[in-house]
Amino acid sequence: MFKHILTYRLKILLRNKSLIFWTMVFPIVLASLFGLAFGNLGGIGTFQPIDVAVVDADAAFDDIGFLSMMEMLSKGDERLFNSQITDEIEAQTLLANGEIKGYILMGEEMTLFVNNSGFEQSIIKSFLDQYLQSVSAANRVLSIRAEALPEVLTALDNRQNFTREVSASRTNPNNTLIYFFALLAMTCLYSGFSGMTEVNDIQANLSVKAARINVAPVHKLKMFLYNITAAFVIQFVQLLVVLAYMVFVLSIDFGTREGLVVFTVFLGTIVGISFGAFISALVKGNENMKMGILLGVTMTGSLLAGMMFADIKYIVSTSAPVLAVINPVNLLADAFYALYFFDNYNRYIENIVGLSIFSVIFCTATYLIIRRQKYASL
Amino acid sequence: MPVFNLCLKIIKKNIPSIMIYLGVFVMVSIIMMVMAEPNQQNIFAEIKTNIVFIAEDESPLVDGLRKELAEIVNFVEIEDEPEVLQDALFFRKVHYILRVPEGFTKDFVSGGTLLLEKTVIPDSTQTIRIDMMIDRYLNIARMYIDTIPEIDLKTVVAHTSEDLSRSAGIKFGTDKINEGEPSLMVYYFNFLAYTFMFVVIIGVSAIMIVLNNIDIRRRNACAPISATRFNVEYYLVHIVFMSVSWLILVAFCLLFGYNEIGNPSTLYYVVNSLVFALSASGLSFLIGNLVNGRETINAVANILVLSSSFISGVFVPQALLGENVLRIASFMPAYWYVKANNKISELMVFDWQNLSEIFTYALIQLGFALAFFIIALVVGKRKFNIETR
């Protein structure tokens, strides 16, 4: 009996094109769009050499040290500047056309001419300041101890870096991933459409098909379990397809714990289906109403989990942690995030426990609502 | 006006789903308004990066470093727990975590090699400035310690901070300094593209699905109303629907950006959005003619609207999109609409030379509108002919 019902249920579900569209095709399209739109986003803040001009207006003040330093800093792959030496008029034109970020007017006091303020401009200024400050320090040392000149020159030459980079975790902090994590979490919850269909097709007051099934000599709960199994199989496979698409086509990095990622998707499918079944059993009203509630809850959950703005996830988890805990989409997205970014499993386990509690609540409530319903008339 | 009234009835039935998109528009606009306010300090050298400073070693040297850094960073107090720190770094709440290891001062004075530990977002511009500041401070301090024997640490810090107070002058080359509040109006108008496309596609296609039904068409054909009259009413209702949707959305944009209404650019935004409304309407006509069935239209609308919004820069700024993505996007009117909006927002002077570029973009959108309408008419006609044959 199990095999028979399962096979036919699978066939029925596979022919439901709009269900497959929303739970598999749509997430894949969205993921591709995220991929296109955020493809370049991770690289924001990557350092590019700054275009700058040096104006040597006062020939009497010939600071060879400064010029040679500029030249040195404009060489190589890791260079700080693309610098050129021009006269003042040309520098002004270049600046007005936006070809350089600023120009330096050499003199006793260096002056930087810019059009607006930004990071590049403040790096040029920072560099100029450094130059003036080193000169000031060197002069002070020489005024205290004139014979220290060789040591001062060595010190100026041997500029040293005093910081050492310690990696935050095993992976790079790339916050565009939050969008994909939230999207995958949303897709898990979209399995709810399947769960909803299953309840609608077994409750005799909700559809004609269910009315027919109810008079069949099969235990209702068994029937329901078989059907839900079919829905689960289809949803889980679809989610794996979405996951595979993200990993292999879009090259989204889910970290190195692949097995646990798949397990999280597995649990997410259970949460999604039981959530849809729960809503369908709980809400009195027609199918559109139920669909609306399911969509509304899922979309709000995805919004708070960072699918539209990654920052929202952080804001919620720091200023309203309760909202993060009672949001299954966020728990799922956070589980993916914890697997990707954190070394230990504490946060991941917290999320998994939360998700398990959710699915137990949804399943129990659905069971209690749909069991032993009898209809006097339909 | 029976046809007109019928169409109004159909639209009324679809108001709930239209309201969802309007609701999303209002919500996202409010979020933008709230989130955009605090991060925009755009005055020279005052762009302060958020960092976490963890000192496991206390000395005049470390205090001096903290004082110097305060010039360019905001210190953020965050628990010294790896998970909390990683979290903050991941979401870019802080860009830099600096840890002064125990015994650093002692090691530094004796010329050792102990280094400060930093955890940063890789390759970000902000961190370079902080590195520069730290190196500058410690290099100068090192120079004093190395060259003047028996100098005490307090004097070193005092001298160093005096040296560090020297700075280059700064002058703004032109008068056009981009200061003050950043304009949010352009974001509201860009986002209008997404909502408007959804609303008109749903509304227009709802009417067309009903009236294009072959039985209803046949029934209407034998009604005692002339074809001209039918068509006039039919197009009138579309025009009214589009104008009302456009008016409502523009009203929302102006409401959210009320403090910028006075800018000369507002008028151009409004005109540009009207031009876009035409091309989006053409698109919805085409979809209504090509696609049958409510479910299918929903799917097509979602894919088309979301994809053109994403790759045209409605959600993510065009400047951040790849070149190839933009090339594909240029086959959609939304791309030119957003491009024109962005240009408007950059304008300082509204002379012909600047405006001609915007007019070009508007003309391209009009071209799209015309093409969509013509294809829609041809497709609609052929479809009807095939079905009635």
How many domains would you count in the coordinates of chain A?
A: 2
The largest chain-to-chain contact, stated as pair and per-chain residue counts, equals: A-B, 87 and 82 residues
- Tally of alpha and pi helices of chain A: 16
| Terminal Cα span of chain B | 30 Å
Relative helix content of chain A: 55-70%
**In one word, what is the shape of chain A?**
elongated
Derived from helix and strand composition plus strand pairing, the structural class of chain B reads alpha/beta
Q: What amount of the residues of chain B lies in strands? A: 5-15%
Mean pLDDT of chain A: 85
State the low-pLDDT regions of chain A, or none. none
* Rg for CA atoms of chain A: 32 Å
User: How are strands sequenced across the largest beta sheet of chain A?
Assistant: 2-1-3-4
What structural class results from the helix and strand content of chain A?
Answer: alpha/beta
State the total count of DSSP E strands of chain A.
Answer: 5
**Helix-strand topology string of chain B:** HHEHEHEHEHHEHHHHHHHH
Please report the number of helical segments of chain B: 15
Count of discrete domains of chain B: 2
Mean pLDDT of chain B: 84
Percentage of β-strand residues of chain A: 5-15%
